[in-house]
Write a structure and sequence with these properties.
Blueprint lengths: L2 E2 L6 E2 L6 E3 L5 E3 L4 H18 L4 E5 L3 H13 L3 E5 L2 H5 L8 E6 L10 H7 L6 E5 L4 H10 L3 E4 L4 H13 L9
Parallel strand pairs: 5-6, 5-7, 7-8, 8-9
Antiparallel strand pairs: 1-2, 3-4
Length: about 180
């Protein structure tokens, strides 16, 4: 393909046939068929995703293996995880609330995860909180919902369901709670 700097930036020369590189390094000519539109839509959504700020997922759980598993899961979905052992550790860390969601265990040393939404609200912060617990009872679910939970899951958590809950929580206005 011939390249030109005629317009002040590097671009294909006028009349040069453009090509598309596949993820495997192969180059193929651009066509004007329906697959071309699909590729262009994919490239546009990819550019939009690159411009969007990263989604921060704060994982608060006293179990190291659970923190690691949730971190791997959200990383696989192109989100940025940060892990914390306790509610106090999370609250003492300077983190951004923009494009963020918290996944928190309920029973931990120190403050219960159930206290987190109220402590955030008291500080004027609005971050959705999704609770996970191995101790699922109707009372715990009700308390979580009253506390402002964006989601509630019994451990072990289905990974796709948790990712869906994160997406849902980030699409809703603050303090929109539901139990799953």
């Amino acid at each position: 393909m011939k390249l030109s700097t005629e317009d002040g930036f590097l671009a294909p020369a006028k009349g040069a046939k453009q090509s598309l590189a596949s993820p495997y390094g192969h180059v193929r000519p651009r066509s004007d068929g329906p697959e071309s539109r699909v590729i262009e839509e994919y490239e546009a959504s990819d550019r939009q995703a690159m411009l969007a700020p990263p989604i921060q997922i704060y994982i608060v759980d006293d179990e190291p293996s659970v923190r690691a598993a949730y971190a791997r899961l959200v990383r696989s979905a192109k989100m940025e995880p940060r892990t914390f052992c306790t509610v106090e550790e999370f609250l003492s860390t300077n983190v951004s609330d923009d494009h963020a969601c918290i996944i928190s265990d309920i029973k931990m040393p120190g403050s219960s995860g159930l206290a987190l939404p109220g402590l955030l609200e008291k500080a004027g912060r609005h971050v959705p909180v999704i609770f996970t617990t191995a101790h699922d009872t109707p009372e715990t679910r009700e308390t979580a919902q009253r506390a402002g939970a964006a989601g509630f899951f019994r451990k072990p958590v289905d990974g796709q369901a948790l990712l869906d809950a994160i997406e849902w929580a980030l699409s809703k206005p603050p303090n929109h709670s539901v139990a799953h």
